[in-house]
Amino acid sequence: MAYKNGYAVGAFNVNNMEITQGIIQAVAEEKAPLILQISRGAREYASNSYLMAIINVAVKENPTSQSQPTSTTAITSKPANNSSMTALPPL
After folding, report:
1. Which end of the chain has fewer CB atoms < 10 Å from its terminal CB, N or C?
2. DSSP state for residue 72 in the 8-state scheme
3. Pairs from 27-32 (Cβ < 8 Å, separation ≥ 24)
4. What's residue 73's pLDDT?
5. Is 30 helix (H, G, I), strand (E, B) or coil?
6. How many CB atoms lie within 10 A of CB 48?
7. d(CA 10, CA 35)
8. Predicted confidence band at 5 (pLDDT cuts at 50, 70, 90)?
9. Paired sense of beta strands 73-74 and 10-13, if any
């Protein structure tokens, strides 16, 4: 969809509430989709449960105009690669 419509989907590492809020505010203003990631370093800095809670609240407080998300949400406690992520569809 991004390629077809000529835009990129930003992927942002988050490790605290303030960074997450800033990213969410910016993409909401732009009505842009995004990917929130939790890096290995962030998981060493803060526990997965805290980081996942921050992302889950961001998703809950920023619902889409559609009743069902168009993007996959995947938050894992044991990621296959170096990050856990959740994707928010366009607002």
Report:
1. N
2. -
3. 27/88, 27/91, 28/62, 28/91, 31/90, 31/91, 32/7, 32/90, 32/91
4. 44
5. helix
6. 16
7. 6
8. confident
9. unpaired
Give CA separation, 79 vs 13, 29, 35, 40, 62, in Å: 14, 30, 15, 10, 24
- Strand order from edge to edge, sheet including 34-38: 10-13, 34-38, 84-88, 73-74
Nearest to 86 by CA among 1, 7, 6, 20: 20
Q: 50 exposed, middle or buried (CB, 10 Å; 0-12, 13-18, 19+)? A: middle
β partners of residue 38:
84
Close Cβ partners of 89 (under 8 Å, ≥ 6 residues apart)? 33, 64, 66, 69, 70, 71
Mean pLDDT of the chain: 74
Distance, CA of 82 to CA of 20 (rounded, Å): 19
CA angle, 12 then 89 then 4, to 5°? 90
